[in-house]
Amino acid sequence: MPSSYQRKLIFHPALIFCFCLLIYNNILDNGWHLDDSGNILHNTPLHITNLQPATLFNTFYAHPESTGKLYRPVANFTFALNWFFGQSSPVSYHLVDIFIHSLTAIMLYLSCVQLLNTPALRKKNRSQLHKHNIALLAAALWLAAPIHTSAVTYIVQRMAQLATLFSISTLFFYLRLRLSNNRLYQIIFFTCCLCCALLALGSKENTILLFPSLALIEGVFFFQFAKIQQFAQQKTKLFFLLFLLLSAGILFFSWDFIIAQANSYGHRNFTFQERMLTEPRILLFYLSQIFFPTASRLSIVHDITLSTSLFTPWQTLPAIICCIGLIFLAIIQVHRRPLLSFAILYYFLNHLVESTIIPLELIFEHRNLLPSLFLFLPLATFVVDIIDTKKKGVAVIAMLVCTVFLVQSGLATVKRNKAWKNAGTLSKDAVQKAPRDARARINLAGWYAQQKKYQKALQLCEEAEQRFTSEASLNTIIPIVRNQQGGIAYQIGQPEKALKYFQQAYSLRKDYRAAAEQLIAVLIELKHYDEAQQIITERYAQKEDPYLLLMEASVFLRQRKPANALASYRKAEFFYRNLSLVLMGKGKALAMQGDYSSAEALLSQAVQQRDQIAMLLQVENSLLTGKEQKASLQLTKLVQTIPLTHLLNNLHAAEKDPFQIPLDKDLLRQALLKTASRMLSKTSDKR
After folding, report:
1. What is the pTM of this model?
2. Tens-digit pLDDT profile for residues 182-208
3. Cα–Cα distances in angstroms (integers) from residue 442 to residues 34, 484, 485, 487, in the given order
């Protein structure tokens, strides 16, 4: 039978999993948000209908803006599997995300145990059970931190979750490798470490910092820092000078990359200098959110005053000094306080990609999932060490404070999850917490438009525009406002007015994909095919986006230019490999050229992917070739399995969709109604 100690070790991971399920079970009814749409709901290559190797391989290239380019293959693979089993229902996605978060916490627990077994900490003479208790508390505190709700509840941020899971798994297997003396085990742990590192890199790009993180572990916990520590204490000024020289060297060798990034801020409402000055304040703000866990301080957007100089606002210089001071303190305290030093250095190191020179959005809470992994380990060590002492009064106080903090974190997480209920609740929460932010109002306007509250939506668009009147906003906020206004105008049945808004949005920002696509869609609906073709050509010259090939081919089909359409579909086929849309498009083009047999072969392949438009095209092909009996059988099967109203709606939707294959609407509508009438008559006769 397992000993009491072994039973506790088995119990700890189970406890972590149950705790995660307890505080995150209320997200199962939450919906889709923001980037979920482009990355999952409208990312066609992820909508798989079979598990064949070729189909699964295609998901590795499901870039939301440039399909055909390798893009976070591990994350996209999991989204595709979710789609196969659950389609667009968010419940299955949330279940997977909860499981990933709990598994990450378990791997963190195991990694913390290994860190406490390293040479730098062996002199503490802690028992194995004591180490496991420290690791359990550190993992539980990290798991419950409400700042992580934006990574766990926001479905598309599974990318960040998987990056964190495989990063901590890599660290765990590296530690096992370094602590093992068995050659066979070393080979196994090295193989696992390498595989997890590759999976991390395939989840999100910021895991490139995984390798410096391993070097950090090696330096802090295995390398003997005694001499360096002694030198740093005796020659503090000289040590600080060496630190500055090292920083200057890194800056010198990366200067060209920094300049390239500095010149790519055209689509942002802040400059390179403003970002670099503002980020230290944001990094400290993240820490305050982590260690002061309350839902009221969490939001999808934040009102951040840009730092325009070292003294504007006044917090800028103190924040920079504080960040540099923390890093310097961590370095000189490596030998005496390795856990604290490692937690600080790991935090700043893993923020380098998303919180420095690359022109990303200034602040997003989900960026802390990976950097914050070890922040609670020094605290947990301190608390458990106190509890383990013979001073019962102090131990009781420490236990009570820790319990209150953990409960508060859990309650704040549950409360914050409620804000993610749907797009409306999230946007209202953002407007309330960041009243000066224009994007929050634009997102809320989109929600009201979906609810058909158009006047309220337009009012919010105007408010958003009024909040940004600077020249920089012409390339950032104003195009988004115009695009939203165009969408509202289209929804209320004013395509001509929508066209003007989309044209304004596109003219202000040529790289704004959403505005370009909606502009092309409206032009196609209004039968302005030449203008649509002109914008597609212009966009393709800027960026060779395979999506544009599909739109171009669709325009050619509407212009009855099958040879041109075939050429575009064949180019797109290189990126989309057996995508039903490409198969249908080629089939339609061949049918236009009179090659009905080849068209039938392609449409049959598309039908196997359960595409309803493909089924309608197959019927159309049969009718055009005079195969009335075959068409009748196909129609009967369609009407028996799919509601007639749904089929008729598909006819109407295909006409407006800029990617979709145009159908002979009158021919198919007449055939569908005739088939439905005949089936209804037969049913009446039987009665």
Report:
1. 0.82
2. 889 989 999 999 999 999 999 998 888
3. 11, 7, 9, 12
